[in-house]
Amino acid sequence: MNGRRIQGFLLAGGTQSVVRGICNSTRNPVEGSILVAPSLEASLYDAIVVARAVVCGAGGLTGHMQSLCRGRGIPVLRVDQADLDRLVGEVTLDLESESVLLGSESGIEALVMGSGNPSPDDLGSACAVIADVQDIETINSSGPEAKRVESFFIREEFLCLAAGLRPLDALHGGPADIAAYGQAVADRLCAWVEALLPDQRLVLRLLDLRSDHAAGVTETAPVAVEPNPELGLHGARWLLESAAYRDALHAMLGSLRRRLGDEARRVHLSVPFLNDEEEYTKLRAHLELPDDVPLSVFIETPAAVHATPAICAAGASELFVGIKDLVQFYLAADRTNHLVAGSYQTRHPAVLDGVRRVVESARAAGTPVRVFSLGADLAHYLEQLPTPDGYMMCTAELQQVVLQARLRPALATSDQML
């Protein structure tokens, strides 16, 4: 049996403990397949979102595409690169043992649903991390508890992947191309606003396309080759240098106002990868945002942690604590590198101290603050951290918490009958 089992490491769980499917080693989308790839990258987006599961040969727990899979409930298992060639035909992923069974194996596909996990009440004003409108519909169809999800957070680069847009190519073109890009983003956002419940909103994290990711989704625009893209020209640094993006953003905001009227206020903007209040002030001025357009900030570097009081004072409308990046910068452990996975610790005392500082500073300033959490960390954060205004979670994990609330009365009745 050992010759038929490949041991791996689970990077993202799903809603089932056992997943079976036919291996797909091409880069083409095959509905319901087990996608097999050396690594996960943005150019595989179409193949990933239709896959039942993913097996890869490299990557960490919280890479961008791993996070996309976690949000969709698509399990990701990392195995040794040398074992990828053995993954052909039908295979079975045993998520509990973090392994792949070769050939047709029987298994029970069961929903993993514990009754002792955190409840929706613990989430505060919850925020769901999404990749497409399907995720909004998934949450809002979960029953009455869905109303506890106050907002939906989307990265602009994920929006582009879902819509087949190539942002750098568009922004490298003329005024018509730039305006068309802004219009295309607005088209997507308008459709998503229609899927919201009355008191919900969208939070758009402005374009944060690292050069290594951009290279896979760019055809005509020049893309810099950087020795360390994670610490390179992206986020607020790139936004400050791009007049074309400013123009595209104004085209998007104008389209939203024309088409949605007052409902356009349900779309909020957030700045990625920002270090301090000086960058915030410069960026707001550079983007030429009207005074009535709120601009929130992602706190995901140690510098931003220490600058939190000043960032709030500079006018940030809201703070989002990006745990995944914060961990790698606090601990100098690449979140996509499985060789340092043991050093990448989402519960490290230094990281939690940083998060605590942000929450306490934001609450003192009266600025709303939300903390991202992996599903496995939520109970620990609830115990160790001061209470933020709400928690952010990927769609599939957040849905688990919402569904548990619906199932808990039935489980209690069942226990009483035993």
Q: Can you describe this structure?
A:
This protein has 418 residues and is of the alpha/beta class. The chain has two domains: 2-102, 3-Layer(bba) Sandwich (Glucose Oxidase, domain 1), CATH 3.50.30.10; 120-408, Alpha-Beta Barrel (TIM Barrel). It has 16 helices and 16 strands. It has helices spanning 45-49, 64-72, 133-140, 156-163, 167-171, 175-194, 211-215, 236-241, 243-260, 277-287, 302-306, 308-313, 323-331, 349-365, 378-384, 395-417, and strands spanning 5-7, 9-12, 18-24, 34-37, 53-56, 76-78, 90-94, 99-102, 126-130, 149-155, 201-205, 267-271, 295-299, 319-321, 369-372, 390-394. The protein has an eight-stranded mixed sheet. The protein has an eight-stranded parallel beta barrel with strand order 9-10-11-12-13-14-15-16, surrounded by seven helices. Strand 7 (90-94) and strand 8 form a beta hairpin. Helix 3 (133-140) packs parallel to helix 16 and helix 6 packs across helix 9 (243-260). The chain is globular and about 60 Å long.
